[in-house]
């Protein structure tokens, strides 16, 4: 693999911060650099394990982001990588994923599941376990303190609009970005009540462009393989339908970007649940191998 390195300028479009850490529209005080590399990490629950391997391949190839934008669990990966954007940081991120079990992020209670199903207004899962896990990883951490600028996408519960969080408590931002409606409770950040970023921008390429990225690497979550034995289950059918809707929206968003969008290959997996971690080792290794091979086959994309 080559050692070419993306070296974006320190000059970035200025953003107007709000009290909740979200960014307003760019000002024209500083022009965006001619070549600013952004990593965009798609949401996808446990399927985002594949992004760990992709990050390793990109880093080995000397491709370094000037900014990182993530949605949902992709935001968790992005924030952890932004805090330590090197091989040691990726090693720690991989170790975290390999140790994850469903109880660490989604300790589903039968009582709350039933209450959520009958419309009692409760989330099916408490976010306490996930919050504890994140607090351990981001003790006293703030988004603006990351080594690489990182931006977390969540969704305004009232309006459905995408909200970009670039300042403030890292854990609060990540909990908001991963607060899948009905599964986790909404999270209040400043004056806003926020839910999962995937609702508004599962692959936030438009947000990355607005933040100044001109070359965008999209790190997708793994994709569930179709298996005949699963074809007629209602849950899987609903999941696939949602996936098709999000995929079409992502295509429209990527087509609207004026800069270069490089979507890395997605890892196929038999996993059909966003909280199933059994296939994590395979997804990480396959994410690395597919990305490494893709970079070798597309040398012109190396910036």
From TrEMBL:
Classification via InterPro entries: Acyl_Trfase/lysoPLipase, NTE, PNPLA_dom
Residue stretches of biased makeup (Polar residues): 1-16
Membrane-spanning parts: none
Presence of the UniProt keyword Protein biosynthesis in the record: no
Domain PNPLA: start-end pairs: 39-209
Source taxon at top rank: Bacteria
One Gene Ontology biological process: lipid catabolic process
Keyword Lipid metabolism part of the UniProt annotation: yes
Active site: 72 (nucleophile), 196 (proton acceptor)
Motif residue range(s): DGA/G: 196-198
Region of interest (Disordered), residue spans: 1-29
Motif GXSXG mapped to chain: 70-74
One GO molecular-function entry: hydrolase activity
Pfam family, one: Patatin
Alphabetically ordered keywords of this record: Hydrolase, Lipid degradation, Lipid metabolism
PANTHER family, sorted: NEUROPATHY TARGET ESTERASE SWS, NEUROPATHY TARGET ESTERASE/SWISS CHEESE D.MELANOGASTER
Protein name, as recorded: Patatin-like phospholipase family protein
Source organism of the structure: Streptomyces adustus
Species lineage: Bacteria, Bacillati, Actinomycetota, Actinomycetes, Kitasatosporales
């Amino acid at each position: 693999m080559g050692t070419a390195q993306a070296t974006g300028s320190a000059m970035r479009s200025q953003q107007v911060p709000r009290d909740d850490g979200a960014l307003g529209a760019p000002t024209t005080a500083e022009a965006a650099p001619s070549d600013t590399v952004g990593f965009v990490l798609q949401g996808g629950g446990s399927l985002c394990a594949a992004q760990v391997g992709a990050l390793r391949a990109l880093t080995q190839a000397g491709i370094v982001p000037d900014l990182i934008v993530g949605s949902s669990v992709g935001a968790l990966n992005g924030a952890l990588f932004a805090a330590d954007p090197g091989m040691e940081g990726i090693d720690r991120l991989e170790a975290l994923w390999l140790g994850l079990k469903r109880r660490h992020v989604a300790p589903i209670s039968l009582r709350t599941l039933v209450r959520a199903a009958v419309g009692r207004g409760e989330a099916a899962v408490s976010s306490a376990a996930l919050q504890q896990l994140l607090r351990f990883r981001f003790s006293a951490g703030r988004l603006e303190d990351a080594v690489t600028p990182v931006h977390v996408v969540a969704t305004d519960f009232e309006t459905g609009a995408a909200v970009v969080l670039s300042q403030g408590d890292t854990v609060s931002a990540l909990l908001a970005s991963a607060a899948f409606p009905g599964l986790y409770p909404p999270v209040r950040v400043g004056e806003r009540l926020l839910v999962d970023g995937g609702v508004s921008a599962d692959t936030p390429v438009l947000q990355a462009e607005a933040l100044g990225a001109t070359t965008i690497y999209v790190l997708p979550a793994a994709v569930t393989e179709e298996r005949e034995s699963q074809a007629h289950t209602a849950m899987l059918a609903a999941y696939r339908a949602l996936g098709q809707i999000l995929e079409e929206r992502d295509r429209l968003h990527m087509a609207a970007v004026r800069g270069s969008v490089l979507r890395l290959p997605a890892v196929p997996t038999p996993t059909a649940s966003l909280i199933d971690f059994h296939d994590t080792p395979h997804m990480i290794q396959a994410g690395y191998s597919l990305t490494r091979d893709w970079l070798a086959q597309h040398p012109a994309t190396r910036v």
